[in-house]
## 1
Amino acid sequence: MEKVILVRYGEIILKGLNRPMFEDRLIKNIKQSLYGLGKISVRRSQARIFIEPRQDDFDFENAVTRLVNVMGIISVSIVWKIKTDFEEIKKHSVEMVRNYMTKLNRHAAAKGPMRMKETSEASVGFKVEAKRGNKNFPIQSPEICRQLGGYLLKNVPGLKVDVHDPDFIFYVEVRDSTYIYCDIIPAFGGLPVGTSGKAMLLLSGGIDSPVAGWMMAKRGMELEAVHFHTYPYTSERAKDKVIALARILSRYCHRIRLHIVPFTEIQLDINDKCPEEHLTVLMRRAMMKISEKIAAENGAKALITGESLGQVASQTVEAIAVTNEAVRMPVFRPLIGMDKNEVIETARRIDTYETSILPYEDCCTVFVAKHPKTRPGLEEIKELEGRLSLDAMIERAIADTETVVIGE
Ligand code: ATP
Ligand code: MG
C-alpha cells in the first residue's frame, strides 16, 4: 500500500487545445506550493493529478492545507494506492475504514462526552461508491459496492449501511492501480495562477481590496500590488498591516511584489489647493495614474480595485466614471455587485478578515471630507487637477517607491 494525494481539477478540462498549458501550469504551481515538504513526484493521469511522496515522513496534512489554496484545484483526497485485486481491495478497505472510525470517534470525544455516547451506541452510517475505470476488472461497479459494503459491515464493528444520509462515503476507484479513500476536501476551483496574465492590485489596509485581489487570482491572474502610504499621517503600523495582508494573499498566488508608494506630497497638495468635497476623487485619480505606470513597468495588463457600487460616496457610478477616466488600462472591480456582508464572508474564508479589521489609519480616513461630492463632474475635476503639478509629483512618487517581495 502506498499513500498518495489525489488532486481533482475542473474548469481546465474545458480549455480544449490550451489544456496542456493549463495542466502544466497547475502542476508547476502545485510543486511550488509543496516546496520544502520533501521529495515528491507529481503525475497526471485521466484528468487527475497524483502526488506521490518519495520519502517516509511526508507531512500529508500540511500538504493538503497548502493544496486547497492552489487555484484551479477543485478538491483533494489523501488516498491509498493498492493493487487492483479484489482480495487486496477488501483487506485494505477494512483497515482504512477501521482507521477512519477511530478518527471519527476521536473527533466525537473531543466534542464532549454526550457526543461520544451517541456514536458509540449508534452505528455510523456509510455507503460505498465505486468507479471502474479499468474495464478488465471482472466485477462491475454496482457489484463492487454490494460485495465490498457487505464485507466492511461484517468486518468493521459499529457500521451500518445508509445510502440516503451516510456519515461518510467509502470511495473505491479501480484503475490500473486501485485507489481508496473516505474524505474529499474541497478547494476553491478557478484557474491556475499565471494562466491569465498579471494585474496590479491597489491594496489598501481595508476589507475589500484583498478580497478583490483574491478573486482575480482565482481567475488565474498573477498579482502585484501597490499601496499608497501617507507617512507620517499614516504610520509604519499601517504599512506593516498591508504587508501582512499581501503575505496572506501570497498563499494563493505564491509570490507578490508589493510597491509602496509615498503619497504624502500629492495628498497635501490636493488638500491645499482643492475644495474638500472633491478630495477623494482627486486622490483616487492620482492613485490610478501611478498604479497604471507601475503596472506598465512591470508587465501587468490591468488594475484591480476593491470598489463596490454605492458603498461610499466615491463609489457612485458618476465617481467611478471620473476615476476611471484617469487611466486607459482595464480596471477590474470584481466586488462591484457584491454586498458588504458577502465581501466579509469571503474575507473570512480566505483568512484576510481578522487582519483587515485591525485598527489603522488610511490616507482616505486621515484626509476625509465631511460631505464628499457623490456626483462629481469630469470637467470640474480636470480643472482642479490643472492646479496641481501632478506629473512632476507622480514622477517623484514613483522614483521613491519601495518594492518588497512577499512569499518564498
Ligand atoms: P478597502 O476596504 O479595500 O479599503 P473601501 O471600501 O474602504 O475599500 P476606499 O477606501 O474608498 O474603499 O478605496 C477604494 C479602493 O481604492 C480600494 O478597494 C483599493 O483598491 C483602493 N485604495 C484605497 N486606498 C488605497 C491605498 N492607500 N493604497 C492602495 N489602494 C488603495
Ligand atoms: Mg478603504
## 2
Amino acid sequence: MKIFVSRKIPGEALDRLTKSKHEVIVSEFDRPLAIEEFLERAKGADALLILLTDKIDGEVIDAIGPQLKIISNYAVGFDNINIKEATDKGVAVTNTPSDEVNEAVAEHAIALTFALTRRIVEADESTRRGSYKGWEPGIFLGSNLCGKTFGIVGLGRIGSITAKHARGCGMNVLYNKTKPDRKAEKELGIKFVKLNELLSSSDVVSLHIPLTEETRHMINKSRLSKFKKGSFLINTARGSIVDEGDLVDALREGVIGGAALDVFDNEPNINPELIAMENVILTPHIASATREARNKMGEQAVSAILDCLSGKRPENMANEEVWPNRRT
Ligand code: GLV
Ligand code: GLV
C-alpha cells in the first residue's frame, strides 16, 4: 500500500516505515508543502503521515482518493484536520499524545513562566549587550512564584502535569475545565473555579485546552479585562485560542503584565507589536521539541499507520467512532 509522509521527521521511526512492505514516499522538501505539491504526491495514498502545518478537509481527502484509510497526525492537537469530514468518509485520524510529549509541553509552560517572572530573556539580552557593570540592587526585579496563584485553563493530560509542577514550585493552583475533576483535585491539591474567577485570581494563567470552535479567540478583550492586574499569560496550546490583537492592547495598556507565547494565531506570522514588546517572550512552537517527545511522536505516528493498514485498531484515535465504519 502507498504511504505518503509530508515531511521528514527527526529520529529513527521513519526507518520502520521505509523497511515495511509498503511503498513509502517522503516529501523531498524540508518545509511545509503547498496544497498542489501535497496532492501531487499524496494522490492514491492509503495512509498519510502529516504535520500540524498540513491542513486536511473533506475536499483534500476526496482529492487523495477513496483508498485513503488513515491520517496519522504527528502532533497532539488535531485542529488542522476536519475530523467530522474525515469520520463521515470513513477515514481514521490518529494523534500522538504520550507521557513524553505531555511532560515536554508542561515543562515548556513552566520554563516560560520562570522566564517571564525572572525576566530571563531581557536580562540575557542586556548582559550580552555589555550592560552588566557589577551587582546592582535594583536591576531586573521580577517576582517570586512561591506562594503565588497559578491558573490552569483545561485540566487534561498536559494541564495536570503542569499543575503538578506548579504545585512543586510552591504555588496555589486553580483550574477550570468543563466539569470539576474531584480525583485530580485530591491528588494534586488544586481547586476548581469558574473561568472568570480563575482569570481574576491568578498571577499566571496557562492555557491547556484544544482549539475548537468554542475555544477560538476565547481569550479576547472581555476575558483579558478580567485578568488580575500585572498577571502573566502563558500559551503553549494553540495560538488561535487568544485574540492576538486584543492581547496586544491588553499588554500595551498594562491590563496584564506580560505574556509568553509558543503558538500564534496565524503561524508562522506573528503580530509585529508582540515582537516589539519587552514583556513578551516568543518561542517558535517548540513546546514538544525534546528528543524524548519527538522520538515518541514519530514512533506513535508510524505505529498508527502500520497497525491500521494491517487491520489493527491504532492506539490513539481522534475519531474512535469511525473504526466500525472505516474504509478498508
Ligand atoms: C503541537 O503543537 C502538537 O499538537 O503536538
Ligand atoms: C546575591 O548575590 C546575594 O548574595 O544576595
